[in-house]
Amino acid sequence: MRWSLLGPVQVTAGGRVLPIDRPQQRAVLALLLLNADRLVPAGQLVAALWADDPPASARNQVQVCVSRIRSALRDAGAGDLLVTQGGGYRLTVRGTELDLTEFAEAVERARAEEAAGRPAEAARLLRAGLALWRGPALAGAAGAFVDTAAAGLDEQRLLACERLATVELGLGRFAATARALRPLVAEHPLREPLVAGYLLALAGCGQRAAALRVYAETRRRLVDELGVEPGPELSGAHLRVLRGQWPPGPVPPEPPPGRPRRNCPASPPGSPGGRRRCGSWTPCCRPTRPTPTRAAARAGRW
After folding, report:
1. What is the pTM of this model?
2. What is the predicted pLDDT for the residue at 112?
3. Alpha-carbon distance 82 to 11, whole Å?
4. Which of 106, 199, 257, 271 has CB 3.0 to 4.6 Å from 211, enough for a Cys bridge?
């Protein structure tokens, strides 16, 4: 059994997606999963679905949704997982069958690995956790609580992306980090931790001028749209780009005799070390000088 909230709300059993298709049914299922293994009173479901304006038939509609969900589970041999108890409902979820639980555990384990001085393993765990996302959280569900709950889950994803960017930059994986952050920065152009990581990733790839353009555009939008200057994290990243103080990447092994070196970008003017080797998920990064408005169209995702 596989329960999914990180994308379309659905249940998979034996490789088959169970027929829980109506938006209201998905919302009831989502709320039960967000409160897995706990009793959810019927009144709480009504309030979650309709806030302060429930229809006269609200409780009956909740009962119908629960009945449809239980019927789908019963057809998959799991009808006993959803029980009626004391005027409410309890859904039993085993271990990491819920993708949200698996994601949260991956993030927590990554935090422990990073604290223990194992950043490569921390990055692997964060990538594995982020790979569980199949789209916007709680997709396909409809109810008063959905937008707020989905925003909270999506915030967890963005925090994990920011943490992964920090770890990857420390490992010198500038090219991969820049590719992964481009679409996120395009989607959240005023989210300063994302932009700060993007500046350092671009600079680490030898694209210092592009990084400075991104900073200038972000600062302009912050001032024009929010009336604020960049905060310490973004302004600090900008200063590091100006001074050439982004994290140095690890130097890869020398190529065997007779094998040509890969063309890594030159270090920005004023930085030590001549030409810079750049660690990344791809063999090497070449400067392409993307602009902030066009970069997202050419980027991959974590």
Report:
1. 0.79
2. 98
3. 13
4. 199
Instruction: Kindly write down the DSSP assignment for every residue of 133-189, as one continuous string.
Output: --SSTTBT--STTHHHHHHHHHHHHHHHHHHHHHHHHHTTBHHHHHHHHHHHHHHST
In this structure, are 98 and 212 located in the same domain?
no
Residues 6+ apart with CB under 8 A from 109: 125
Q: What is the Cα–Cα distance from 177 to 205, expressed in whole angstroms?
A: 10
Q: Is the pLDDT of residue 285 over 60?
A: no
| Residues 194, 200, 204, 209, Cα dihedral to 10° | 100
Same domain, 238 and 146: no
φ, ψ (nearest 5 deg) of residue 152: -65, -40
Q: How confident is the model at residue 96 (pLDDT cuts 50, 70, 90)?
A: confident
**Structural domains in the chain (count):** 2
Tokens, residue 292: 């902030």
SS (H, E, C) 9-49: CEEEECCEECCCCCHHHHHHHHHHHHCCCCCEEHHHHHHHH
E strands within 39-95? 40-41, 82-85, 88-91
Hey, what are 256's tokens? 């065997």
Structural domain range at position 149: 1-171
Same domain, 150 and 206: no
Q: How far apart are CA 116 and CA 110, in angstroms?
A: 10
What is the length of the chain?
A: 302
Amino acid of residue 42 = A
Each residue of 61-89: pLDDT tens digit?
999 999 999 999 999 999 899 999 888 99
CA distances from 192 to 92, 121, 198, 202 (A): 39, 26, 10, 15
47 within 8 A of 40, measured Cβ to Cβ: no
77-87: buried (b, 16+ CB within 10 Å) or exposed (e) per residue? Answer: ebeebbeeeee
